[in-house]
């Protein structure tokens, strides 16, 4: 009986090794992901979770605005918790549901913001919205375009995203892939934001 069990375990071990070898050969045959896709995926990974960000941004000829955006969850519609953000802009607070269909909640009212509103949320440092925009880049383009730049003396990489409002460029730290700056260049409006972590957050 013991010999039968030992033989069976040995056979399973051999089969397991064979399966592992086959998987390794299959993995070796797969093409390596493009560098742009890797940068985008790592930036999305950094933005995942409860990433609170602060921002100083300006759109068009408006004065510079300071904001703070904190991811949370909020009962919307049928009461189920949906992804949302607590957004504070120059001391004024609002709650935005950032899951589809991107409803803006003001008290008991709910409305759909236009395309520029979504870009404004990204410039304001709302991590879930910025993550979604980068995700759309990965979904629409086989190889996202990546460039190199420097932000405040720090080596950075750029990701370009086309939106209805114009071209959004996200500058991420070359090592951590944390977003540092976001710029908007559109036919009707331009904007720029400098993103930073709240004090006490690494």
Set down the secondary structure blueprint.
Elements: H1 2-29, H2 35-47, E1 53-59, E2 65-75, E3 81-89, E4 92-97, E5 104-106, E6 109-111, H3 115-123, H4 127-140, E7 146-151, E8 154-163, E9 166-173, E10 179-185, E11 190-196
Antiparallel strand pairs: 1-2, 1-11, 2-3, 3-4, 4-5, 5-6, 7-8, 8-9, 9-10, 10-11
Helix pairs in contact: 2-4, 3-4
Give an overview in words.
By secondary structure, this protein is α+β, with helices and mostly antiparallel strands. The chain has one domain: Clam (outer membrane lipoprotein receptor (LolB), chain A), CATH 2.50.20. Helices cover 32% and strands 38% of the residues. The chain contains four helices and eleven strands; from the N terminus they run ααββββββααβββββ. It has helices at 2-29, 35-47, 115-123, 127-140, and strands at residues 53-59, 65-75, 81-89, 92-97, 104-106, 109-111, 146-151, 154-163, 166-173, 179-185, 190-196. Strands 6-5-4-3-2-1-11-10-9-8-7 form an eleven-stranded antiparallel β-sheet, with helices on one face. A hairpin with a 2-residue loop joins strand 3 (81-89) and strand 4. Helix 2 (35-47) runs antiparallel to helix 4 and helix 3 packs across helix 4. The radius of gyration is 23 Å and the shape is globular. The N and C termini lie far apart (59 Å). The model is unreliable at 4-17, 23-31 and 102-113 (pLDDT under 50).
């Amino acid at each position: 009986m013991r010999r039968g069990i030992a033989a069976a375990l040995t056979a399973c071990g051999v089969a397991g090794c064979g399966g592992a070898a086959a998987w390794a050969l299959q993995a070796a045959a797969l093409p390596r992901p493009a560098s742009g896709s890797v940068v985008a995926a790592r930036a999305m990974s950094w933005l995942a979770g409860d990433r609170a960000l602060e921002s100083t941004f300006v759109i068009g000829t408006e004065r510079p605005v300071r904001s703070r955006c904190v991811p949370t969850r909020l009962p919307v519609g049928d009461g189920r918790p949906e992804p949302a953000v607590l957004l504070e802009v120059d001391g004024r607070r609002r709650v935005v549901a950032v899951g589809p269909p991107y409803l803006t909640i003001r008290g008991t009212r709910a409305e759909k913001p236009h395309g520029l509103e979504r870009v404004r949320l990204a410039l304001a440092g709302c991590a879930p919205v910025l993550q979604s925009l980068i995700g759309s880049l990965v979904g629409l383009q086989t190889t996202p375009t990546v460039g190199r730049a420097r932000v405040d003396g720090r080596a950075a990489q750029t990701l370009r995203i086309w939106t209805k409002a114009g071209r959004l460029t996200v500058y991420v730290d070359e090592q951590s892939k944390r977003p540092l700056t976001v710029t908007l260049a559109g036919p009707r409006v331009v904007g720029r934001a400098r993103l930073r972590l709240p004090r006490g957050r690494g």
